[in-house]
C-alpha cells in the first residue's frame, strides 16, 4: 500500500524545509567519502600508532586498504544493567570480523550514565548534556580516520541519540547499532509503581521500597518498562539501523550472541569496499526520520524523543519540528500497551509479535515509508519478521505471525487502542509544550486549577509532605530548562502527583524541565519553551493564578489578563547553588549555549 496522503504531505514539507541544509550536508558527506579512509595514504608513523597493539595478522591486513577495518564505539560500563552485557561484545565482533577476512578495533569508549540512578539527584542535571558529550566522545574516536564502517554499542536514554548524532556527523561511513536486549521480567511495573506511591504517602518504609525496586531491576539488560531506552531500540530498528528483529532479544542468550556476530559482519558487508555501500548519512533521510516519529507514536514512546529526534535530524541536515511530530501523532493510532501505557513490559510486547508485527501493520496501513534504505538492504518490509536461532547457531528469520499473540498488548491496526499516538503539542500564552496522553485517562486530559509555583522539585515534594497540595492544583516547576540547570527529568514527582490524582483532585504539572520516558497517568505539560531563564512567560506565573492545560484542544494558557501579565516583572532567582557539585561546574559553558527544547536542546550549531 502506498504511504497515506497525509504522511506523504508531512514528509514533503519536511523535505522542502530542509532542502538547503540537507544538500549542504550531503555535499560534506561526499567530500569526506572521497578523502578517506585511506590507510595506505597515512604517514607510516600515523599508521604504526593505529595498529601497534594489533595481532600480527591484523597488522598485516591494515598495512594497506586490502581489507575493511570496523570501528567499535562502545558505551560499556558495568554499573548500567543495560550496558553490562557489552563487556564481551568487542571480542565477539573481532572474531566475526576475522571470519570474513576483516579487522575490528575499539575506536572509542563513551560515557553512559543511568538516569535511574540519578533521578532526583544532582547528577541528573548532567543527563541531557551527556548526549552531546557522547557525540563528541565518539567523534574523537572516529577522527583517527582508520575505519571503513562503525558499529555502535549503546542502549539507554541519551546514549543512543548521542551515538547517532556522531554517526551522522561521520555519515560517509556505514553504521550499525547493536543492542544487548532487555532484562527478563521481574516484579510487574504497576506493582512497583504502587509501592512507590505508598512510600510517598509514608505508608511503607525504605526497606519495602528497596525490595520492590530490586525485584523490578534485577539482572543484566535494559529496564523492562517502555521508557526512553526501549523507545531508542524501537527507533533504531524502524529506522533500519539494527539488523531485523534484534531489538528485544534478552542478553546472554545464544540468539543474542548470534545477532551480535551477524551485525558485525553486516557492517563489514556494506563498506565502500563491497557492492552494497550504505553510508549512514545517505541511508537516513527525511523518510527515515518520519518513520521514527510514526513508531514513537504507534508505541506510546518516550517524550524525550520530541527533543532527541529534532537534534538527530539536524545532524543529517533535516529540519524536524514539534508541529511535524504532533501532526504525525494525529494520524497514527496507538497499537501497543506497554507500561506506563499499559500493564505489560517489553518482553510481553516482544512475545506478542513485537516490532516485526508492528512494522507490518503500519506498512500495510500505509503509515510507514517502505521505500527506505536500511543496513539490511532496500525496503523496510525486510523488518516485518521474527529473528530466531538456526540449527547451525546462525540467525534465521521468519515472517511475523498474522495474528497478535496478545491483543491487550499489541493490537492489529483495525483494533487500535486509540486513534492517535498520544503525543500533542500545546500552544498558548505560556509558550509551547509537549504532553503525552497515551497513559492519561480521558477524564484527566483537561485541567483548570490554581497554580502553585516551585523552583525545585524538592520544594514540591516538601509541600506534598506538608499537606499543602491536597486540593486541585497545577504544579508549576520552573527554572528546569537547558539554560537553567541542564533540563533534568522530574520523574521523582510522579508518585506524589499520582497520589493527589488518586485522591480525587484535579492535578497537572507544567514545567520547562523533562519527565522520564516513563511519563505516566498525570497530565504533564513539559519542555515549556521559552524556558523561564530564557524569557519565558512561565517565569511570570504566581501562586493562585488559574492555569488551563487542555490536551484535547492543544492549549496551555495562563488565565491572567493580558495587560496584567505584561505589567508583571520577573524577580531574580539565585541558581548558583545548582551550578556546582557533581561536576555541574564543568558544564557552565553548555548551559550558556544550550538551544531551546523545541530545537533539540543541543550545544551544536544548527545549520
TrEMBL record:
GO molecular function annotations of the record: 4 iron, 4 sulfur cluster binding; metal ion binding; phosphogluconate dehydratase activity
Cofactor list: [4Fe-4S] cluster
Gene3D superfamilies: IlvD/EDD C-terminal domain-like
Dihydroxy-acid/6-phosphogluconate dehydratase N-terminal domain residues: 68-381
Keyword vocabulary terms for this entry: 4Fe-4S, Carbohydrate metabolism, Gluconate utilization, Iron, Iron-sulfur, Lyase, Metal-binding
Cofactor: how bound: Binds 1 [4Fe-4S] cluster.
Residues of the Dihydroxy-acid/6-phosphogluconate dehydratase C-terminal domain: 408-601
E.C. designation(s): 4.2.1.12
Keyword Iron-sulfur: yes
InterPro entries linked: 6-phosphgluc_deHydtase (IPR004786), Dihydro-acid_dehy_C (IPR042096), DiOHA_6PGluconate_deHydtase_CS (IPR020558), ILV_EDD_C (IPR056740), ILV_EDD_N (IPR000581), IlvD/EDD_N (IPR037237)
Catalytic reaction equation(s): 6-phospho-D-gluconate = 2-dehydro-3-deoxy-6-phospho-D-gluconate + H2O
Family: Belongs to the IlvD/Edd family.
NCBIfam families: edd
Name of this chain's protein: Phosphogluconate dehydratase
Amino acid at each position: 500500500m502506498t504511504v497515506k496522503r497525509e504522511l506523504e504531505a508531512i514528509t514533503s514539507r519536511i523535505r522542502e524545509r530542509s532542502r538547503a541544509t540537507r544538500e549542504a550536508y550531503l555535499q560534506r558527506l561526499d567530500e569526506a567519502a572521497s578523502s578517506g579512509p585511506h590507510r595506505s595514504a597515512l604517514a607510516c608513523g600515523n599508521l604504526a600508532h593505529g595498529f601497534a597493539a594489533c595481532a600480527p595478522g591484523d597488522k598485516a591486513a591494515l598495512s594497506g586498504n586490502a581489507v575493511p577495518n570496523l570501528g567499535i564505539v562502545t558505551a560499556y560500563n558495568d554499573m548500567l544493567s543495560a550496558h553490562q552485557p557489552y563487556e564481551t561484545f568487542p571480542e565477539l565482533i573481532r572474531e566475526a570480523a576475522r571470519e570474513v577476512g576483516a579487522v575490528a578495533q575499539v575506536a572509542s569508549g563513551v560515557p553512559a550514565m543511568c538516569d535511574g540512578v540519578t533521578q532526583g539527584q544532582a547528577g541528573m542535571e548532567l543527563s541531557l548534556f551527556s548526549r552531546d558529550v557522547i557525540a563528541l566522545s565518539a567523534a574523537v574516536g572516529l577522527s583517527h580516520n582508520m575505519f571503513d564502517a562503525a558499529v555502535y554499542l549503546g542502549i539507554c536514554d541519551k546514549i543512543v541519540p548521542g551515538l547517532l548524532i556522531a554517526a551522522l556527523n561521520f555519515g560517509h561511513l556505514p553504521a550499525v547499532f547493536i543492542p544487548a536486549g532487555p532484562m527478563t521480567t521481574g516484579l510487574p511495573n504497576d506493582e512497583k509503581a504502587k509501592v512507590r506511591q505508598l512510600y510517598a504517602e509514608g505508608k511503607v518504609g525504605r526497606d519495602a521500597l528497596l525490595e520492590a525496586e530490586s525485584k523490578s531491576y534485577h539482572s543484566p539488560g535494559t529496564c523492562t518498562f517502555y521508557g526512553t531506552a526501549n523507545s531508542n531500540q524501537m527507533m533504531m530498528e524502524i529506522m533500519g539501523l539494527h539488523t531485523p528483529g534484534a531489538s528485544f532479544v534478552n542478553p546472554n542468550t545464544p540468539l543474542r550472541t548470534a545477532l551480535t556476530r551477524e551485525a558485525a559482519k553486516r557492517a563489514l558487508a556494506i563498506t565502500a569496499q563491497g557492492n552494497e555501500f550504505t553510508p549512514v548519512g545517505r541511508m537516513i533521510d527525511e523518510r527515515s526520520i518520519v518513520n521514527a516519529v510514526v513508531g514513537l507514536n504507534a508505541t506510546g514512546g518516550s517524550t524525550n524523543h520530541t527533543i532527541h529526534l529534532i537534534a538527530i535530524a539536524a545532524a543529517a541536515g533535516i529540519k524536524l519540528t514539534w508541529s511535524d511530530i504532533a501532526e504525525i501523532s494525529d494520524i497514527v493510532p496507538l497499537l501497543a500497551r506497554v507500561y506506563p501505557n499499559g500493564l505489560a513490559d517489553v518482553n510481553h510486547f516482544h512475545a506478542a509479535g513485537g516490532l516485526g508485527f508492528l512494522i507490518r501493520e503500519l506498512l500495510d496501513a500505509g503509515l510507514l515509508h517502505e521505500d527506505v534504505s536500511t543496513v539490511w538492504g532496500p525496503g523496510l518490509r525486510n523488518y516485518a519478521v521474527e529473528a530466531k536461532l538456526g540449527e547451525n547457531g546462525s540467525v534465521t528469520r521468519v515472517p511475523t505471525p498474522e495474528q497478535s499473540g496478545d491483543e491487550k498488548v499489541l493490537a492489529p491496526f483495525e483494533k487500535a487502542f486509540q486513534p492517535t499516538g498520544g503525543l500533542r503539542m500545546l500552544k498558548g500564552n505560556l509558550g509551547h509544550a509537549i504532553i503525552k496522553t497515551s497513559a492519561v485517562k480521558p477524564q484527566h486530559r483537561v485541567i483548570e486549577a490554581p497554580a502553585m509555583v516551585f523552583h525545585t522539585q524538592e520544594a514540591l515534594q516538601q509541600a506534598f509532605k506538608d499537606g499543602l497540595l491536597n486540593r486541585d492544583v497545577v504544579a508549576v516547576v520552573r527554572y528546569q530548562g537547558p539554560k537553567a540547570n541542564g533540563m533534568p527529568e522530574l520523574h521523582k514527582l510522579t508518585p506524589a502527583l499520582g497520589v493527589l490524582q488518586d485522591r480525587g483532585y484535579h492535578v497537572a504539572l507544567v514545567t520547562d524541565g523533562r519527565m522520564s520516558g516513563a511519563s505516566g497517568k498525570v497530565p504533564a505539560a513539559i519542555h515549556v519553551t521559552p524556558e523561564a531563564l530564557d524569557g519565558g512567560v512561565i517565569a511570570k506565573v504566581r501562586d493562585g493564578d488559574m492555569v488551563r492545560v487542555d490536551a484535547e484542544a492543544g492549549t496551555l494558557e495562563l488565565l491572567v489578563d493580558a495587560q496584567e501579565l505584561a505589567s508583571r516583572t520577573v524577580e531574580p532567582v539565585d541558581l548558583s547553588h545548582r551550578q556546582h557539585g557533581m561536576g555541574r561546574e564543568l558544564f557552565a559553558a553548555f548551559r550558556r549555549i544550550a538551544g531551546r527544547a523545541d530545537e533539540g536542546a543541543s550545544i551544536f550549531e544548527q545549520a
